[in-house]
Amino acid sequence: MKIKWVFCTILIFLSVLKIQTNLQAAAASQINNILNKTVLTEQDKQIIDDYIRETINALLNENNLSKIARHREVILSRKGSQVQYVQQFNESTEKYITEAFNTIKTLKPAEKQSIIAANLLILIDKLENIQFAIPAMNLLEDKNIVVRYWAVQCLTNPNIIARLNSGQASNPNLPQEITAKFKSIVPGSSPEILNSIARYAAGINITQGEELLLQIADQRIRSYADWSIKLEYIDTNLLKLIESKISNPSDKTDVSALARRFAQLYSYAIQRYAAGFDTLNSIQKAQLATLIVEIEDKCIKNMTGSQQTLRKALETEQLQALMAEHNILLGSDTAQGKLPLKYKFNYGRTDTGSARTAPQLLPRQNQQ
Questions:
Q1: Is the peptide bond before 109 cis (omega within 30 degrees of 0)?
Q2: How far apart are CA 34 and CA 14, in angstroms?
Q3: Three-class secondary structure assignment of 268-284
Q4: Second label for 125, Cα 20 to 30 Å away, from 27, 59, 326, 336?
Q5: d(CA 335, CA 329)
Q6: What is the mean pLDDT of each run of 10 residues along the chain (368 residues)?
Q7: Is residue 265 a contact partner of residue 209, using CB atoms and an 8 Å limit?
Q8: What distance in Å separates the CA atoms of residue 44 and residue 271, rounded to the nearest whole number?
C-alpha cells in the first residue's frame, strides 16, 4: 500500500507540473498575441496584469539562480511598444514589483532575501521606470554589497537621470532627495559604487549634483593621502567628469572649486606613481600609468591646448622628468602651474597665510 501511495503522489506531482507548464506556455502565447495588437480590450489588459503577477510570484518562489534570471528576462522581453500595452505593462510591473519588495522580508532562508532583492533591482534597472526610484533608494544602505550596488545602478541609469532632469518624476523634489541620500553614503561606499554615483552627480541638473561630485573627489583624495586608495583606474572616469563640467560650465558652476579638485586628484595619482614606483604592484602601476596618459590626452589637451610631456616621461620611466612636468602643469612651491593660472585657483593657505601654489604633498607613511 505504501508503494502505491508513493507512486500516486509522484503521478499527481507530475500532472500538476505538466498543467503549470502548459498554463505558462498558454499565457506566454496570449501575451505574444497581445503584443501585436493595435487596440487592447479590457480582457487583454487583464491578461497582461495576470501574466506579470504570476511571473513575479514565480521569481519570488524560485530557488534556482538561473531560473530566477530567466523569469526576470521573460518580463523584460514583454515590454512592448504599443501605447496601451506599455501603459498596462508599467502599471502592472509597478504594482507587483513594489509588492514583491515588501514580500522579500518574509522569504526563507535569509540568504534568499538578498538574492531576490538583487534580481528585482536588476529588473527595474532594465525597465528604466522612474517610479521605482523609492524602492531603490530604500536599499542604498542594505547590508549586502551586491544589493547596494544594484540599488545605485537603478538610480544612476542614464535614462533615469534624463527623466529626472526633464521633470518626469511625480515628486518634483526627487532629484534633491536622491542626491541627499547619495551624499550620506559616499564615505562608506566602494570605489565601484562611487564611480556610478559620480556619473549621476555630473549628469543631474541641480546645484547639489556639483556638490556631490566635489564630495566624491574629496573622498578619493583622502584615500590617496592615507595610502588606502583602491582601483585607481576609476579616477580616470571621475577626472573626465570633472573636466567636462569645467569645460562646459553652467551659470552656477564653481569652476575654480572643480579645477582645484581635478588638479589635486591628478597630482596625487602622479605622485603615487612616482613615490610607489618600487613598492606598488604591477597592476597598481599599470592603472596609474593608464590614468595619467588618458587624462593628459583626453582632458589636459582640452584645458591647456597642448600637453604630451607626461606620457614621454612615463615611457622612459624618468621619474624626475615626470615630476618636473607635473610641477609645470599643476604648480610647485616656487611657481603656479598652467591649470591654476588658467582657472584662477590655489591649493589653500600656507602656515604664513599666503596662497599655496603647489598641490598637497603625498605623505610617505603607511605605504602599501
A1: yes
A2: 30
A3: HHHHHHHHCCCCCCHHH
A4: 27
A5: 10
A6: 46 39 56 89 96 96 95 94 95 97 92 96 97 96 97 98 95 97 97 98 96 98 96 97 96 95 98 94 95 95 83 91 95 95 93 92 71
A7: no
A8: 64
